[in-house]
């Protein structure tokens, strides 16, 4: 099979034997692979794959089933030719990929392969953090509450806006520049604040002027912590899922205590396979209908050949992408 491997901080084409599926796995012919910031970190040497996983990047793909391994309890029954999208711990930048059947989802006919490849990471991340599966949900977003999505025009953010609305929440979001603000408004956010026109303190004042947030989904990380605590309502939950602005930050603990608020940090890639399977089952059960009807859709910025992966990475790194970027093997 053809892959993109990491070599000295860059990606280069390589050929490797096509793997075969084991128990509970399927082999996919990859039609499209989603690009995520974790891929950029891995190429730079900052985010190695979990032990035993492929060492080439790619955390989500869409394609057709070429081969099915021996069945395994609780895994969905798939057949050769089925069209699916899948969540991976690595190895998506390739012409073929072996994936756990339990981490796949059927692709509605209303979606292209490129759109389907933009779904698994964002859906699983948002659902597991706003709703939760098999554990106390960190966000525990309830109908009628206010959700603040930082970075509402990104792949995860644009999905969070739509799912928050679907769950009956009032959604506020941030975005950079008039084009992105308009795009996020079109997704259903009640208010979208332009973070390029407001500094952090002014943004906090604007959020508080809108009543504050019960749940904040934050991709920025450390430097945003202090202001995010000030944006929370009493009993609010700050869920940190990224470090785009940096890893270190300070928190006014008294402000946190006065609000009886909580801060949670989560990742998806290194979760146990059983937990990721449970998340994907819930995603299929609760979001399959809205995906088929178009009520929830991926925001796709660009689809480009796999050979142009470094250009795709630059789009994310430079903040050019509005929504998801996918690669076509």
Automatic annotation (TrEMBL):
<dbReference type="InterPro" id="IPR013154">
    <property type="entry name" value="ADH-like_N"/>
</dbReference>
<protein>
    <submittedName>
        <fullName>Putative PIG3 family NAD(P)H quinone oxidoreductase</fullName>
    </submittedName>
</protein>
<dbReference type="InterPro" id="IPR011032">
    <property type="entry name" value="GroES-like_sf"/>
</dbReference>
<dbReference type="Pfam" id="PF08240">
    <property type="entry name" value="ADH_N"/>
</dbReference>
<dbReference type="Pfam" id="PF00107">
    <property type="entry name" value="ADH_zinc_N"/>
</dbReference>
<dbReference type="InterPro" id="IPR036291">
    <property type="entry name" value="NAD(P)-bd_dom_sf"/>
</dbReference>
<dbReference type="InterPro" id="IPR020843">
    <property type="entry name" value="ER"/>
</dbReference>
<dbReference type="GO" id="GO:0070402">
    <property type="term" value="F:NADPH binding"/>
</dbReference>
<dbReference type="InterPro" id="IPR013149">
    <property type="entry name" value="ADH-like_C"/>
</dbReference>
<dbReference type="GO" id="GO:0016651">
    <property type="term" value="F:oxidoreductase activity, acting on NAD(P)H"/>
</dbReference>
<dbReference type="GO" id="GO:0008270">
    <property type="term" value="F:zinc ion binding"/>
</dbReference>
<keyword id="KW-0521">NADP</keyword>
<feature type="domain" description="Enoyl reductase (ER)">
    <location>
        <begin position="9"/>
        <end position="327"/>
    </location>
</feature>
<dbReference type="InterPro" id="IPR002364">
    <property type="entry name" value="Quin_OxRdtase/zeta-crystal_CS"/>
</dbReference>
<dbReference type="InterPro" id="IPR014189">
    <property type="entry name" value="Quinone_OxRdtase_PIG3"/>
</dbReference>
<keyword id="KW-0560">Oxidoreductase</keyword>
């Amino acid at each position: 099979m053809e892959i993109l491997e990491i070599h000295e901080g860059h990606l280069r084409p390589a050929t490797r034997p096509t793997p075969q599926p084991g128990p509970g796995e399927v082999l996919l012919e990859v039609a499209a692979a989603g690009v995520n910031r974790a891929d950029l970190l891995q190429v730079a040497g900052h985010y190695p794959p979990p032990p035993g996983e492929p060492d080439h990047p790619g955390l989500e793909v869409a394609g057709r089933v070429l081969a099915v391994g021996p069945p395994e309890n609780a895994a969905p029954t798939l057949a050769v030719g089925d069209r699916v999208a899948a969540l991976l711990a690595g190895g998506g930048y390739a012409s073929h990929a072996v994936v756990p059947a339990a981490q796949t989802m059927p692709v509605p006919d209303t979606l292209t392969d490129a759109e389907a490849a933009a779904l698994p990471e964002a859906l699983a991340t948002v659902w597991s953090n706003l709703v939760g599966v098999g554990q106390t949900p960190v966000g525990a977003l309830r109908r009628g509450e206010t959700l603040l999505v930082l970075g509402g025009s990104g792949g995860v953010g644009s999905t969070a806006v739509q799912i928050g609305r679907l769950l009956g929440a009032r959604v506020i979001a941030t975005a950079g520049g008039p084009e992105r603000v308009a795009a996020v408004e079109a997704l259903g956010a009640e208010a979208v604040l332009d973070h390029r026109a407001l500094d952090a303190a002014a943004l906090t004042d604007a959020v508080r002027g809108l009543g504050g947030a019960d749940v904040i989904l934050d991709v920025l990380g450390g430097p945003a912590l202090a202001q995010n605590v000030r944006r929370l309502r009493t009993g609010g939950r700050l869920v940190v899922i990224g470090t785009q602005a940096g890893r270190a930050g300070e928190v006014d603990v008294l402000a946190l205590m006065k609000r009886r608020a909580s801060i949670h940090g989560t990742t998806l890639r290194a979760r146990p396979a059983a937990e990721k399977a449970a998340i994907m089952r819930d995603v299929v059960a609760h979001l399959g209908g809205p995906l088929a009807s178009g009520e929830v859709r991926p925001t796709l910025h660009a689809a480009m050949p796999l050979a142009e992966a470094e250009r795709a990475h630059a789009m994310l790194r430079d903040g050019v992408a509005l929504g998801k970027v996918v690669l076509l093997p």
